[in-house]
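Let's practice the habit of predicting before peeking. Look at the sequence and jot down your guess about where helices and strands might fall. Then scroll down.
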Amino acid sequence: MLFAKIAGILIMVWFYQTAKKQQENGLKWAITGLVGYWLVWWIITLSIANPLLETFERSSALIQMSIGIIPAIAAIIAALFIRKKFLVDAFESKNE
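Done guessing? Here is the structure:
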């Protein structure tokens, strides 16, 4: 859970910095990136991680920790796609 929180904060800072480099609204980018990250994190946690943790509840701590990181990794990947979409939109708006 700590990894997910730290990653969320880093995503927000990363989106804000990227927006400023593109001369876009940094607050809009940061909030959208954070919301996208947390939304994917919750969906994966509820649909995949929690059922897996229940299945492997008597397994080693390493397996449980690995399953707990899955939602954060999926959310980071989603944030990459969101950022890419924002960069494409910013590039297209500058070329018009």
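How did you do? The two ends are 43 Å apart (CA to CA).
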